[in-house]
Amino acid sequence: MPAESAKALEAAKPGRLRRFLDSDIGWSFRRTPAAWLSAIVLVLLIATALLAPLIAVQNPYDLSQIFIDKAEIPPIWARDGEWPFLLGTDPQGRDVLSAILYGTRVSLIIGLAAVIVSMALGVSIGLVSGYYGGRIDNLLMRLGDTVLSIPTLLMAILVSAIFRELLPPALREPFAAVVLVVSISLTNWVQYARTVRASTMVERRKEYVLAARIIKVAATRIMARHILPNTLTPVMVAATLNLGLAILSEATLSFLGVGMPITQPSLGTLIRIGNQYLFSGSWWLVVFPSLQLGLIVLSVNLLGDWLRDALNPKLR
Fold first, then answer.
1. Minimal CA–CA distance to 118: which of 42, 198, 172, 196?
2. Phi, psi at residue 6, to the nearest 5°?
3. Nearest to residue 66, comparing CAs of 94, 102, 100?
4. Regions of the chain where pLDDT drops below 50
5. Are 242 and 118 in contact (CB under 8 A)?
6. Which of 36, 96, 194, 196 could tie 87 with a disulfide, CB 3.0–4.6 Å?
7. CA distance 177 to 35
8. What is the structure's pLDDT at 16?
9. pLDDT at residue 47, rounded to an integer
10. 130, 301 Cβ separation under 8 angstroms
11. What angle do CA 274, 279, 280 make, to 5 degrees?
12. Angle (nearest 5°) at CA 244 between 235 and 120
């Protein structure tokens, strides 16, 4: 009987989705139209990008699926539009919709990877800086000030150019995404470091940290197991907001020609290619990738703004 009662009690517990919807943050999410609308749009964009091999007309990376005689076909609703090229084709005969879906995957993966790397780097530096203080803190924070003193875009271009020169020519295109992730990450870690440093300096003076230090708990364990969990809320808000900035940074670098190559186009690469044909009448080559990029960044920013307000106790 006790076992049966335990099973019945476990079955009666609400699921994770229900517990989330019943929580304070879930209530805020349901009562904020901008939050759930942007979440729906973002989920749809991510789902279509991940399912690109199943729903795209062609693989824009596969030269055998590209037909040059189908070059610069306008969208399907235009006079010379053709099925199944819903958004038309580019000068190489690639389906624009297929290129956008595959390019969205590239942009999202690079943006997400850059946020993860910069967050890991910034959180680690912030923990060390805030916990030890003194000369270590001054050295790390002055390094952060140096990074902030250089415009983000120029810093990313400089880092990208250095890494490209260090790589052999044969490896530059295969490692283009890795170079972009490193370039964006090395310019975006300072915000995480400063946020975590401020929280760490407050937490290290509390009784539970002092007690752990008295019983000779290792500093790395104190930072990872005790201090870090209490600093994650502002870090997650910053990561959400920085995802849109990372995607824009990738698009900007690709637009300037120091990002993804034409053979592996991201949204920024597609916009750069389409911009060359804007005044020749092929407006769809730049308009549709730009709209896709704008929708992604707008959805992420709206979610980040909502999350920042929902986790701020002063606004409840």
1. 196
2. -65, -40
3. 94
4. 1, 5-12
5. yes
6. 96
7. 30
8. 66
9. 92
10. no
11. 85
12. 35
Closest CA to 149 of 112, 187, 106, 103: 187
CA atoms within 13 A on the CB side of 209: 20
Phi, psi of 89 (to 5 degrees): -130, 165
Phi, psi at residue 257, to the nearest 5°? 90, 10
Give how far Cα 4 sits from Cα of 7, 10, 14, 297, Å.
5, 10, 18, 50
pLDDT at 88: 83
Residue 167: per-residue pLDDT: 79
Residue with token string 């699926």 = 65
